[in-house]
Design goal:
With 302 residues, the chain is an alpha/beta fold. It folds into two domains: 3-141 and 266-295, 3-Layer(aba) Sandwich (Rossmann fold), CATH 3.40.50; 147-262, Rossmann fold, CATH 3.40.50. It is built from eleven helices and eleven strands. It has helices spanning 3-24, 42-54, 76-86, 97-106, 147-157, 173-190, 205-211, 225-229, 231-240, 265-270, 272-280, and strands at residues 28-33, 64-69, 91-95, 112-115, 136-139, 163-169, 193-199, 218-220, 245-247, 259-262, 297-300. The strands form two sheets. The chain has a six-stranded mixed sheet with strand order 7-6-8-9-10-11, sandwiched between helices. β3, α4 and β4 (112-115) form a beta-alpha-beta unit. The longest helix is centred in the first third of the chain and has 22 residues, at 3-24. The termini are far apart.
Length: 302
């Protein structure tokens, strides 16, 4: 290449550099979703996007979201997390306990924001709620803490209930064990008998409800990612089988659930951008306290 042509190339690269630099500076946020597609995660993903918009972010311009989906096959979280770390992303968002644990295994340096991980201290995701330490912080959904309260409310609304079926996601054994232990401890005080009902995949739901007729008096559904995605089907099945249903999300009341008690899912996910914004501006996850939902809402079927 002649010297004059080389100078032109260098000059052209110099003029383009500010634009290239800006493109490289767009933060990449990797999200580990538990469902199978963006459509299945539309409600919560929409809440995340609205949260970014409220903070002045424009997707594709000054923020990039990279969504991965496990399709309720939680072993996929490991591969999805490794893929996002290899890019690398600037922040990892881990939805559900298995996703948070996979993200923790994948990186000790990239900031991680978990959503819905239960008992983060016992799982050693964080050192404490106020001072998480390490590279992980996030938002809990009080999944375990509200198990007893849901049974208490269910007993008040359906006083004749004696036998309660407790759905548990057997693909998420860490959560399932805690839900069973908590519900059985609460049931003893309420003079209820709790029967754990394992659901491994969404395809199990029809079979499960077909076998509980006349065996239980009501069903309680904890705050679990798979059950959230299947909330409408669960409510419709409970209605079809005439089983009173206590569930964690108000939307299910509109399609057949008798009672819903729990925090707003969209408000929880709407807080994710708050953490990411703080981290992108220099805050360390170690110093950002884990957030607990402040409001728990009770909804009854009309």
């Amino acid at each position: 290449m002649r010297r004059r042509d080389l100078i032109k190339v260098i000059a052209g690269l110099g003029a383009a550099w500010p634009f290239l630099a800006r493109a490289q500076q767009v933060p990449k946020i990797g999200l580990l979703w538990h469902a199978g597609s963006e459509m299945e995660e539309a409600v919560n993903l929409g809440a995340v996007r609205r949260g970014f918009k409220d903070l002045g972010y424009v997707e594709g311009q000054n923020i990039k979201l990279i969504n991965t989906f496990a399709a309720e096959q939680y072993e996929r979280f490991n591969a999805n997390a490794a893929e996002l770390v290899a890019l690398p992303v600037d922040v990892l968002v881990a939805v559900t306990t298995p996703a948070a644990l996979a993200a923790q295994r994948a990186t000790k340096t990239i900031p991680i924001v978990f959503v819905g991980a239960i008992d983060p201290i016992e799982l050693k995701l964080v050192g404490s709620i106020a001072r998480p330490g390490g590279n992980i912080t996030g938002i809990t959904n009080l999944a375990i803490d509200l198990t007893a309260k849901r049974l208490e409310v269910l007993k008040e609304v359906v006083p004749s209930a004696v036998r309660v079926g407790q759905l548990v996601n057997s693909s998420n054994p860490a959560n399932a064990r805690r839900f069973i232990a908590e519900s059985q401890a609460a049931a003893a005080k309420l003079k209820l008998t709790v029967q754990p009902i394992e659901v491994g995949t969404p395809d199990d739901l029809e079979r499960v409800f077909a076998t509980i007729d006349h065996q239980i008096d009501a069903v309680s559904v904890p705050n679990d990612g798979m059950f959230y995605n299947e909330r409408q089907r669960i409510a419709e099945l409970a209605l079809a089988h005439q089983v009173p249903l206590m569930i964690a999300w108000k939307e299910a009341v509109e399609v057949g659930a008798l009672i819903a008690y729990g925090p707003s899912s969209t408000k929880i996910y709407g807080r994710v951008p708050y953490y990411i914004d703080k981290i992108l501006k220099g805050a360390k996850p170690a110093d950002l306290s884990v957030e607990l939902p402040r409001r728990k809402l009770l909804h009854l079927s009309a």
